[in-house]
Amino acid sequence: MRNIAKVLMAVVLSTPLAVGVAAAELGDDGLHKTSWMRDTFKDLREDLEEANGEGKRLALIFEQRGCIYCTKMHEETFPRPEVSQYIAENFFVVQLNLHGDIEVTDFDGEVLPEKEMARKWGLLFTPTILFLPEAVADDATAPEAAVAVMPGAFGAGTTLDMFTWVNEKRYAADSGEDFQRYHARRIRERNNGSAD
What we know:
Keywords: Signal. This is Thioredoxin. By secondary structure, the chain is of the alpha/beta class. 40% of the residues lie in helices and 17% in strands. The chain has a domain at 19-155: 3-Layer(aba) Sandwich (Glutaredoxin).
């Protein structure tokens, strides 16, 4: 019986979404758009203030046109109801274009087009998600202030675990559980105590 449950769970977590949240549509900029992404003036100080006002965590996601890994996240991971709902309820997500020209104001006050901000921050790959704390020093850049960075495309379990780990502030020094240990524990819990 346990093996049947494992097989069913594996199928559910690996099958593209059949029911629930629709996959994101492509915007005019060639990037996928979800209902939980915020269209802002991209002043990160204002975005952080608004996120805090809503009781949510600020997350910045860099993507680019034609990115197969971004497409994978938007077609297979983000549409999962448990992932999409968790992000929508707990995060204020601002999308940035790795090659875009829209001006972004960093926490340190510097204003640059998205593509130059990506270079300033040393971002090379998409998708990359930066998770920010509730308070950021005036002289800090977003990567310096980030409590976690999620580079690349991951499945639903890993993605949900990362968003949950950040939201629960498990990155804090006194939490005693880094992301890898947290994620391994969550996998065992999802598999009813089995590590395989």
